[in-house]
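Protein Record: Sequence and Backbone Structure Tokens
======================================================
Scope: a single protein chain, as residues and as a discrete description of its fold.
Tokens: labelled as protein backbone structure tokens, with as many entries as the chain has residues.
Position: the record begins directly beneath this header, with no further notes in between.
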Amino acid sequence: MTVPEIKTILSIQSHVVHGYVGNKSATFPLQCQGWDVDVLNSVNFSNHTGYGSVKGTKITLDQLKDLYRGLKDIGTEYDALLTGYIPNHEILSYIGEIGEDIKSKHPESLWLLDPVMGDEGQLYVSESVIPIYKKILLGGLVDIITPNQFEAEILLDFKITSIDTLKTALKEFHTRFKLKNIVISSCSLPEYPNEIITVCSQITPNSKIHSHYFEVPIIESYFTGVGDLFSSLLIDRVYKYRNSDSSNYLITSVNEVLTIMSKILQTTSKYAEIKTGRKIKSKMGSANTMKEFELKLIQCRDLYGSTEKTFNSTHL
């Protein structure tokens, strides 16, 4: 009998009882891809904030330390670490220590950091987390970062307003923070008024920077948990392809993930149309429409292993 490979990952993100964001968005797709997922919740909420009201609690520093101490006591080791929404700078600082500890035990473990801070010009965490994120990145242990455009601008202290400033941003991430893999999950530029672009940039073994972008059609509705799902699928693909012969494994990984994501969003929109009997758009603060547009992760479970690539990449 052949014993299958067991891949272990610690996922530190938010949790909601109802709906799919944070760990609720990431865990099931990772399990479908053969990951043994240990889940550490940074918050425990009834639902995500898009509903207009929310109940629940945020983890305290003492609780986080106690939980991780318990994991250490039983000798856990991880092939990967996925970090998402973190509520404050004290928690984030300790998560930096967790990353250091995991890497010290298993240097080849993969750390994907999603610096969840805000979007569309609005910061929804304390500004005190910004220098902590920068400090963690300067530590050189993060393998992949997946900010959106606004989060990238915050970390770099300048606006991304064109292809030229986008190139500068990618170079800064590679040189200042010594990051090997960068994915800007969503970026709006004047050159592409009708699309969102997803950008990936990778330093190859010969120390050359390869940067590409994908044009992604805009779906006129509001979805939550998309970035969390994107990061979970991406860490799976990068783990799978990083030791392959291809020096551009990041491009392949992002293309596969975008293809899957596109189908999930289309399926989610279709289910909302069938349920309501008409085409509708979800709106922030509207509980009724939010419920209909929760990601259909269970219905799309057969998609997560797909290697189909339907997007064209353009070299920057």
User: Anything to note?
Assistant: The first strand starts at residue 7 and ends at 16.
